[in-house]
Every structure is written in structure tokens, then in C-alpha cells.
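Objective 1.3, modelling of assemblies. Example input:
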Amino acid sequence: EAQVTQNPRYLITVTGKKLTVTCSQNMNHEYMSWYRQDPGLGLRQIYYSMNVEVTDKGDVPEGYKVSRKEKRNFPLILESPSPNQTSLYFCASSFGRLGVGNEQFFGPGTRLTVL
Amino acid sequence: AQSVSQHNHHVILSEAASLELGCNYSYGGTVNLFWYVQYPGQHLQLLLKYFSGDPLVKGIKGFEAEFIKSKFSFNLRKPSVQWSDTAEYFCAVGSGNTGKLIFGQGTTLQVKP
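Predicted structure (C-alpha cells):
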């Protein structure tokens, strides 16, 4: 089944404790992206990757890191999480650039709470 | 800077009522427009998209949207809503050949049976 998977689905952690949220897709998509969803703010793009070893900042990259060492995986790293990073996080992938109308497929989401 | 604005934050309708959700964007170049839906507890799914061609696009579940370039708008419509349409709806704009996608704040639709 074609899908985007994220792990963990739920995570409660404390301020400053490094964490990684994994994202994997099995559709051989070139493009992958991370979003956070907050009430009243919709989804905001954190980072995106157009291909392996190519990553770019979205609108809210502060406090996050990503890497794209292989095509299928795009982990989101919080080196020193803070309470304002409490949010619902979505990973997404698409076959190619969004600018040519490619649809993004979303993962199920990771609900992160930073105490 | 690019932005997407959804005018209605919370809409309550009775079943069989008609729906129109507004979406306006600010960007001067070529855009690609999307509407996504998020049912309670689920991830986002694509309803429809505009890439080029006919500005009236039809999506899944009876939804349609019209791209009006002169108004920078991409409003979502459905002639007759059902209780199962209760969800949050997001308009999104992708620009040119970049990987950036800007979402609106979302509109929560509640359909009363």
C-alpha cells in the first residue's frame, strides 16, 4: 500500500531533550516536506526537500533540523525542544515539484508535547 | 510575501444546504492551487487542485472550485452538503517551481443532520 508513515504518533517529552520524528514513504517520491499544524494558524511548512541531499527552509524552520540521506526517509530533528514546539506535525511527499501541480500525500501526524 | 487567507473560520450548515468557502491568495507569479480536507482524527487528503486549463475544477465527493485570476481567489463549493462533510478544509497555494506550499488558516465545517 502506498503510504507515508511517521513515528512516533504521540510523544511527550521535556524541554531540551533531543528527539527525532521519522518519516518514510514507499512511493519513490522525490519531494518531501514537514509541516506543523496549530489551531488558528493552519499548516506551516518547516522544511522541504526536492531530492536526496537537497533541503530548504520553509516558513518556520527555527529550532528544527532535517536530513535527506536517502530518497524514502526525511527525519525531523529537534535538538533542544521547547514548549512552543508543542504541535501536531505532518510529513508529506509528492512525485515532483509542487509548482507543476503534483499532489502531496500526507502522513498520519505526530502529536508532540514538550513540557 | 505570499499569503493565503480563508475568510470563514467556522461554518455551520444544515444537511442539503449549499456551501461556499472563500480562499484568496497573494502572489504575483504562476500558482498552483489546492484544497485539502481533514476529517476528524485523520490526515489531510486532496479534494481538488488547479494547475492550468479550465478554471472550474471538479474534485472528489461532489466538490468543485473556481479559479478567478483577476480576484486572486479559489473558492470551494458544493451544492448540497452531507453530515459526512463535517471536517476542516484548507486552501493551499504552491508557487512556480519551488517546493514551498502556503496553507490558509483552515475552515471548520460543521454539518448538522
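The two ends of chain A are 36 Å apart (CA to CA).
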